[in-house]
Design goal:
17 helices, Beta-galactosidase, Chain A, domain 5, 5-stranded antiparallel β-sheet, Hepar_II_III_C
Length: 746
């Protein structure tokens, strides 16, 4: 969907305030309203006065105000421009309406912070321009979906406009003449709120589009003192609780604060959730909105920060890679969450954002930073359950080495609605501040008109969402659930294990229903050992099918190949394509091996560090090295390398591997160290109901991990092979030995 994040300058206060007055209709003949009916309600006049007095003494707040002044002054100089909508995302009219709502919001804040009436006049004149334009608008000429917007090509952007403009209007509404106030109230805010709340197909969804819509209508209700809008926003268009904001809070977040569509959309949806919740807290504190579901909205802020590495969100589902902790939505989330909790860890995130809101919350953060109250935000191993009850999968995040050390992400979550990808038990790996094992995210160039107007490209469906584009099992060259997200929505992986110790972190999950008659279980571990330079990733994927099939297991990685540790036939004269459909048509094959059950290796270099991936399977497999970008005449896809393991004609097989970061290449000093792997061999042994993976390490030591077929259950297990015998109780156990002499691993 097309996003237009607002410049969030104004927010409701979190402390104190009068309750919402009784509902007011829009009478034919109006009397002059009392001051209490026009005074700001999203931030009180007293709070604006405090910010005006204290903001200059807080450098970050003062800098934010200066930034806003420069932007608004430039727009004031250019003059009022409220064009008739005609362009899709990225076009002139689309971008101008975005600039206008940002300016309305900013100008309202600046009027309150400076006392300069010119800002209020500018915001008024912009809104009067919309009062002339909006009543005559029908569906946008470039409208998308069943409910196109009026100012923008999709209703979502109209909602964003109203959320932002309502905040600016609240700050200047008491400066207007009765005639101007009535004109703007009726022809802009009531008209837009009626349009949004009058389209239940959008307004009553449990979806981020509806969250923006209900926030827009609810905040409009507070500003206009019209409880009918607030009631619709809270309870849905029927006002019966079957939809609306409260239902969305209850349904879209897990008890851990994980948002159903994944971190990228959690970032986007966080803004209306947090902004509207803050407005509710300001006007109706008796609702205790920030305490609802054990404070799930505040947990959502923490969960979103945890779902990042190196400042960027994990790009699962329809995600764009360049979105991270500095986004304006999370600036709002951090400031409001800090005001609610006083959690000093959030200040360290605000410090990296280098932004605050022009609001009481923003001032509070700026003052705390000026007083050096920030504490480090601890990025720790975390299991974020999915689903409203926490019973529909989970996002497992394993971490070692601190903020820029190693992070292993297992995507064992539910589908994620229409933005979800077909990639159950997919994984990503980060190390040394880099994306090492990657996820493509979305095939989209946001708001770049030259690329289909900034919407999702055709390749988002034909490549980015298909299973072959991810690091998980593909059966018979078909994507999970046949590529139908509605079939996938009710089915989620079953988490089996999540355990953390000083040298071992391990997670496991099982997926059934992605393919008829096929069940696959994946267990991954992050392991440290004194004989290894950095922690390594152990991977075990066991698939059981009802009949023989083709099993493909891709690995998408980032870096330049240094060494191919197996014999291949290279395609040098022609570049064949992997297949014809389901994403296979977008992969060139550059080299392929003959089938074997022996372990093989591939080494690549990324940002001065080497990565060696050792892999094998219990049935003979081919190894193919390829690259994305085939059948892409418009050059929409990034060219990225991949390794594919292929097993043919088997019903049951197990894939296993180990990814090892090691060594250093310094191009400036022209030095190389540790370029060779410190793992001599990877071996797999199978018992009756368990597997053991063994790493023979340089120097003679050995590391083994035993994994039960169902690690969620107890029981005793035994696996023997190669002169060794491993016995343990429970779902898993790690065994370290000093030599490779076949010691009993009791």
């Amino acid at each position: 969907m097309n996003h237009a994040p607002p410049l969030m300058l104004l927010l409701a206060a979190t402390l104190g305030g009068a309750a919402l007055p009784a509902a007011q209709a829009a009478p034919a003949a109006r009397q002059a309203p009392a001051a209490s009916a026009t005074a700001p309600v999203l931030v009180t006049a007293a709070q604006w006065t405090q910010m005006r007095a204290e903001g200059a003494r807080s450098p970050l707040f003062a800098k934010e105000q200066q930034r806003a002044e420069q932007r608004v002054r430039a727009m004031m100089k250019a003059g009022i421009d409220v064009p008739v909508p005609k362009d899709k995302g990225g076009g002139y009219t689309h971008e101008q309406h975005k600039r206008n709502y940002q300016a309305i919001q900013a100008a309202g804040a600046l009027y309150r912070l400076t006392g300069d009436k010119a800002y209020a006049t500018f915001a008024r004149d912009l809104l009067l321009g919309y009062a002339k334009l909006y009543p005559g608008l029908g569906a946008h000429p470039q409208g998308r979906g069943q409910i196109p917007g009026r100012l923008f090509w999709q209703t979502l952007n109209d909602s964003v406009w109203l959320v932002s403009a309502a905040q600016g209007y609240d700050a200047i509404r008491d400066t207007l003449s009765d005639a101007d106030r009535t004109t703007i109230d009726d022809n802009v805010f009531r008209a837009m709120a009626d349009f949004l709340s009058g389209t239940p197909e959008n307004f009553d969804k449990i979806h981020n589009h509806a969250t923006w819509a209900v926030a827009a209508v609810g905040m409009t209700g507070y500003v206009l003192r019209d409880t009918s809008y607030v009631d619709k926003a809270m309870q849905g268009s029927k006002r019966d609780g079957s939809a609306g904001f409260l239902k969305q809070v209850d349904q879209l977040f897990s008890p851990d604060g994980y948002y159903e569509e994944g971190p990228y959309y959690q970032r986007y949806a966080l803004a209306p959730f947090i902004l509207f919740a803050n407005a509710i807290e300001r006007n109706e504190p008796q609702r205790g909105i920030f305490k609802r579901r054990d404070g799930v909205l505040l947990k959502a802020v923490d969960a979103l920060v945890q779902s990042s590495y190196g400042g960027y969100f994990f790009p699962i589902n329809d995600a764009i890679l360049d979105k991270g902790l500095d986004t304006e939505e999370l600036v709002a989330g951090i400031d409001i969450a800090y005001a609610q909790t006083g959690d000093a860890r959030l200040l360290s995130v605000a410090k990296t954002q280098k932004r605050v809101l022009l609001s009481p919350e923003g001032l509070q953060v700026a003052q705390a930073l000026a007083d050096n109250k920030a504490k480090p935000f601890a990025f720790v191993p975390t299991l974020l359950r999915d689903g409203p009850d926490g019973t529909e999968g989970a996002l497992a995040i394993l971490r070692m080495g601190g903020e820029n050390g190693q992070a292993l992400v297992m995507k064992n979550t539910k589908q994620g609605m229409g933005h979800g990808h077909f990639d159950k038990l997919n994984w990503l790996f980060y190390d040394n501040g880099q994306r090492v094992v990657t996820d493509y995210g979305a095939a989209r160039f946001l708001n770049i008109e030259a690329k289909a107007g900034g919407i999702y490209l055709p390749e988002n469906s034909s490549w980015a969402r298909q299973t072959i584009a991810h690091n998980t099992l593909v059966v018979n060259e078909q994507s999970h659930f046949g590529g139908d997200w509605k079939k996938g929505q009710p089915l989620a992986p079953t988490p089996l294990l999540f355990a953390v110790s000083d040298d071992t972190q391990i997670a496991s999950a099982r997926m059934e229903g992605a393919y008829d008659g096929v069940s696959f279980t994946r267990t991954q571990a992050l392991l440290s050992h004194p004989s290894l330079g950095e922690p390594v990733v152990l991977d075990l994927l066991r698939v059981t099918g009802s009949k023989a099939a083709r099993y493909d297991l891709p690995l998408h990685f980032n870096g330049h190949i240094m060494d191919v540790g197996f014999k291949t036939q290279s395609a040098v004269a022609a570049r064949p394509v992997l297949g014809k459909a389901n994403g296979y048509q977008h992969v060139w094959i550059d080299a392929a091996s003959e089938p074997t059950s022996e372990a093989r290796s591939l080494t690549w270099l990324l940002d001065g560090r080497f990565y060696t991936y050792r892999f094998a399977s219990t049935a003979p497999s081919r190894a193919l090295i390829g690259e994305s970008g085939a059948n892409d005449p418009s050059f929409n896809l990034r060219r990225e390398p991949m390794l594919l393991q292929r097993v043919d004609g088997q019903a049951v097989t197990t894939f296993y591997g180990v990814l090892e970061p090691h060594g250093q290449y310094d191009g400036t000093a022209e030095t190389v160290r540790g370029a060779n792997s410190r793992i001599d061999r990877l071996t797999h042994y199978r018992g009756k109901d368990a597997d053991v993976l063994v790493l023979d390490l340089a120097g003679g030591k050995q590391l083994a991990v035993g994994i039960a077929d169902d690690p969620a259950k107890g029981g005793s297990h035994e696996v023997s092979g190669g002169g060794h015998s491993w016995r343990w109780d429970g779902g898993w156990k790690r065994f370290d030995t000093g030599t490779r002499t076949g010691k009993d691993g009791k």
